[in-house]
Design a protein that fits this description.
Helix content is 21%, strand content 22%. The chain is built from five helices and 14 strands. The protein has a six-stranded mixed β-sheet with strand order 10-11-9-12-13-14, sandwiched between helices. A five-stranded mixed β-sheet has the order 3-1-8-5-6. A three-stranded mixed β-sheet has the order 4-2-7, with no helix packed on it. About 5% of the residues have low confidence.
Length: 352
């Protein structure tokens, strides 16, 4: 089961209570207060990891609680702090407060840590209340309660390339060929039931790209038909979108109509997806009618088209190189935009 959206209830640990205690020694006529402070409660912390690619464990265990702090003890002994509750989440997880709807955290890097809830402070022991006018205080503070909250966790897969296409267009076969992922393949629609991320290796460059295989999109996907629109969120973070089109026109479908419908569904879900760089993969070029269909496709759509055949492996190596160039260019453009925005923000602050 693939789970990319869950609700959790979390509670940080309560602080330990302060202690009321006095020194009692044989030759000490007036033993003073020596009650220690309570320990701090544990925090609830989110941490990014690449060892998880879904949120299934939070579906079956929605409640999480950090350890409370230990109570203070005599002889000025401070209670031990409670252990933090660290929630490991996959990269791309967005956390929002269910009560306010506000986004409180976004986990994008391995090892990134965000404190979701703060543990309560420990209470003071009676030693803290000693003064010149109160030399034997019989007062100690209770520990403060830890913060609590109800949160929505939504996973948006982080990948360089988003692979989209109609069912049986060849997405899973291509993913098997060029990445280390091994999605299920079969001669019926919707064999891929959840997004999968594979690594495309470039040994000569000592580099790699991440490609997300998005489950088959059909007409009406943006309206929750087929596998629904929930998987479309996994291409929002991709730098380049790759449309794989069955150029053989199987079952009487027109390849150019398939492409137009895919674009329309992405736009209906989020218009910003249409601004991303695209590559069209004309698959199944080993079929007799594919060459003529490709010719007509090029007449209808002025876009970068890479002919391939997952059966004969024609054009696969060329596609990998084109993909590398596209992604590199997209990343460079994004970096330039970030620098411009940063410089503009600095100029505005300097002017004030």
């Amino acid at each position: 089961m693939f789970v990319d959206e869950v609700r959790i209830i979390a509670q940080a640990g309560d602080g330990g209570d302060g202690c009321i205690s006095f020194r009692r020694e044989k030759y000490e006529a007036f033993g003073g207060p020596n009650g220690g402070d309570g320990g701090k409660g544990g925090d609830v912390i989110l941490e990014g990891t690449n060892n998880e690619n879904h949120l299934i464990k939070y579906k079956y265990q929605p409640q999480w609680k950090a350890e409370r702090g230990q109570h203070g003890m005599g002889s000025d002994r401070i209670g031990r702090s409670g252990k933090d509750e660290v929630l490991l989440v996959p990269l791309g997880t967005i956390v929002s407060n269910r009560e306010t709807g506000q986004v409180v955290a976004e986990i994008l890097e391995i090892g990134q840590r965000v404190r979701l809830l703060k543990g309560g402070s420990g209470g003071w022991g009676n030693a803290k209340f000693k003064s010149s006018v109160n030399r034997a205080p019989r007062r100690a503070n209770p520990g403060e309660p830890g913060e609590t909250g109800e949160f929505q966790l939504v996973l948006k897969t982080i990948a360089d390339v988003g692979l989209v296409g109609y069912p049986n267009a060849g997405k899973s076969t291509l993913t098997n060929m060029i990445t280390n992922a091994r999605p299920k393949m079969a001669a019926y629609p919707f064999t891929t039931l959840h997004p999968g991320v594979g690594v495309i290796e470039y040994p000569d460059k000592y580099q790699r790209l991440l490609m997300a295989d998005i489950p088959g999109i059909i007409e009406g996907a943006s309206e929750n038909r087929g596998l629904g629109h929930r998987f479309l969120r996994h291409i929002e973070r991709c730098f380049v979108l790759t449309f794989i089109i069955d150029m053989s026109g199987i079952d009487g479908r027109d390849p150019w109509d398939d492409y137009e419908q895919l674009v329309a569904e992405l736009g209906a879900y989020d218009k910003s997806l249409l601004d991303k760089p695209r590559i069209v993969l004309a698959n199944k070029m080993d079929e007799e009618v594919a060459a003529e269909n490709l010719k007509q496709f090029r007449q209808r759509h002025d876009i970068l088209i890479q002919p391939i055949s997952c059966l004969s492996e024609e054009g696969i190596a060329e596609f990998k190189e084109v993909l590398w160039e596209k992604v590199s260019d997209a990343k460079a453009r994004m970096k330039e935009a970030e620098i411009r925005d940063s410089n503009s923000a600095n100029d505005d602050s300097d002017s004030h």
